[in-house]
Write a structure and sequence with these properties.
430 residues, alpha/beta, 4-stranded mixed β-sheet, 24 strands, 25% strand, binds ligand EPZ
Length: 430
């Protein structure tokens, strides 16, 4: 019974160090399978989704050595199976990157259909379209996606929707295909760029990542590298919004401010002060937040992974706000939980209409998925009295030491595993 116990009501103040980007790391770790030489990857976040993909890579025969909490050495010269179907893997979305990486190197792979947060139907048709265009025979059999090709041949691929996953997967396979591949309508997220930079550091030839046209000239072999993953834009954004909802003063450190522009812009719009320096952003919220409109969009738009966090903030803002989710169709499940705290939010189709209330009150809550779970923690930190959050394993998929980092900012939060520990927490915080 792991839960977060929170006593809300005090502003978060201080500095917090941001870790490596989970969604970049998932793809980069899988891509490390594409060479027989040893790869050293730094700034790998220690979260459960990462541990799931690393253990799946070990099951395939990769030698994974941790040189520290955030540094991993991988050697994939002894892969002994091309079937990835472990139980842990079924729970994560990024299992599909194993498919791209193994198909690139071995022209064959069978990987369990992706799981991940339940935030919509999460199709994989564009991944399949990319593989097929490169000459792969793709079948779905017995719950596995089965890829097989005689050889991979460069191609021209237009993605019908902007998708991070299919852009990266196509890039992985095309990196070792014969000839040139062009991906049009590619996703431009910072982690797409990070994966391209990682592959290039192994000898791939990828140009244009970060724009909507990526050109890849396939190479026969990739080689060893040492690489540091970029900071996690969403982890940073979550602490920035935590400052806003608690009327705090938080500096997120070790970030790339450019990646946070859409988040900083919305914070300023709703009345926060945002100060940027080279690798840090400070958010100060000294007055009541004001209403706004926001729509989630592919990068550089406002990220869908920050949608629950901004909704929690706008729930406390003066006036009526709207939040429109344009990426995933089922990402408002947490609204019922917020309602238990006194929020006034109505969801119509893919838009939440929010009438700001002056306060939230603590309540027992259930985290429905990773980002919504983090947003509920933020609501608990802003609320009066106690909030207890269940299903925190979702939150731990993507936030390293969440409660410890929040404690470092002065939050009254603990991770408890029994009723006794919960009572102890209540006694401690008063
Ligand atoms: C990645 O999911 C992230 N996950 C998500 O983060 C993130 O919300 C999302 O990108 C958008 O930024 C990982 O990186 C593991 P998409 P992914 O492919 O790859 C549609 C988190 O909280 N689509 O960019 O699944 C799809 O339905 C998680 O860290 C197709 O139609 O997202 C969606 O509407 C949650 N066909 C849109 O594209 C496809 O073949 C964007 O999806 C693929 C996607």
């Amino acid at each position: 019974m792991e839960q977060y116990a929170i006593k809300g009501g005090n502003p978060l103040v201080g500095e917090v160090e941001i870790g490596g980007a989970k969604n970049a790391a998932l793809a980069i770790l899988a891509a490390a399978l594409m060479t027989d030489e040893t790869v050293l990857i730094d700034n790998v976040p220690d979260v459960s989704d990462i541990n799931a993909i690393l253990s799946a890579m070990q099951d395939l025969g990769a030698i994974v050595t941790r040189l520290g909490r955030h540094t991993v050495k991988i050697n994939a010269s002894q892969i002994h199976t091309l079937v990835a179907d472990g139980e842990e893997l079924k729970k994560i979305r990024a299992s599909y990157y194993l498919l791209g990486a193994l198909t690139a190197k071995y022209k064959e792979a069978r990987v369990v259909l992706p799981g991940g947060c339940n935030i919509g139907s999460r199709a994989i048709d564009q991944h399949i379209k990319g593989f097929k265009a490169l000459g792969v025979d793709v079948r779905i059999e017995h719950g596995l996606i089965c890829n097989k090709a005689e050889h991979l041949k460069g191609s021209h691929i237009y993605l019908d929707v902007v998708t991070v996953g299919a852009t990266i997967n196509t890039m992985l396979a095309a990196a070792m295909a014969d000839g040139q591949t062009t991906i049009e309508n590619a996703a431009k997220e910072p982690h797409v760029v990070d994966v391209a930079n990682f592959l290039n550091s192994m000898g791939a030839n990828i140009k244009g990542a970060g724009t909507d046209v990526i050109r890849i000239r396939g190479v026969e072999k990739l080689h060893k590298t040492e690489y540091t993953i970029i900071p996690d834009q969403i982890e940073a954004g979550t602490y920035m919004f935590a400052a806003a909802v608690t009327k705090g003063d938080v500096t997120v450190k070790n970030v790339i401010p450019k990646h946070l522009e859409s988040i900083s812009a919305k914070l300023m719009e709703i009345g926060c002060e945002v100060e940027e320096s080279d690798d840090a952003v400070r958010v100060v919220a000294s007055k009541r937040l004001t209403h706004t409109q926001v729509k989630t969009l592919p990068y550089p738009g406002f990220p869908t992974d920050m949608q629950p966090q901004i909704t929690v903030a706008l729930g406390l803002a003066e006036g009526t706000s709207t939040v429109t989710e344009s990426i995933f169709e089922n990402r408002f499940k947490y609204v019922d939980e917020l309602t238990k705290m006194g929020a006034s939010i109505k969801v119509e189709g893919n838009t939440a209409i929010i009438d700001g209330v002056s306060r939230y009150t603590g309540a027992p809550l259930v985290a429905p998925d990773l980002r919504a779970g983090a947003a509920l923690v933020m609501a608990g930190l802003a609320a009066e009295e106690y909030t207890v959050i269940d299903n925190i394993q979702f939150i731990e998929r993507g936030y390293e030491d969440f409660h410890l980092k929040l404690q470092g900012l002065g939050a009254k939060i603990d991770r408890v595993t029994s009723e006794k520990e919960l009572q102890k927490f209540k006694l401690k915080v008063g």
